[in-house]
Amino acid sequence: MFDPMDVRLARYDDLEAIEEVAYWACAEAIGEMVPDAVVATEISQRFRRAVLSEHLLSHRMLVGINPSGHIELVALVDDAQDHTVLTTVVAPAHPSQNPDGAPLVEKLRSMGWVDALSSSVALGNTPHERFHETAGFAPGEVIVDRIDGHDVFRREWWLEPALSAAG
Question: Is the pTM of this model over 0.90?
Fold first, then answer.
């Protein structure tokens, strides 16, 4: 079952909830593969307050809100040389529910990010993988991150560039 989600720019008053979602999602994604200290390192590298604030101030952080008003998605947007890189976390309100990824892509496209999109997901993180599938992403290469001496396996998910009106 895929639940509808409203995607909007993050606001300052979202930061505490964003940090909670990031912690929970990272712990769920890699917590069974690595010790708790590695999860903490992952969170501090990707979602520390300075990183979140930088993305918030530059209008490069989006949140997905479920019908109950809870944040279930956080997406940090960064430009690479030939595509746009998303750092995402997905935290469904209930294990039987999966947020629909299509509203995120629609919002990104409406904001001008029309290049190809990529996002890495910890292998076996089913809610996160399903989220990307519903958004139209295709699974790509497997990469290995080394965090505090531990290997973390991720799959890169790719979405083609948006078609332009000019063809």
Answer: no
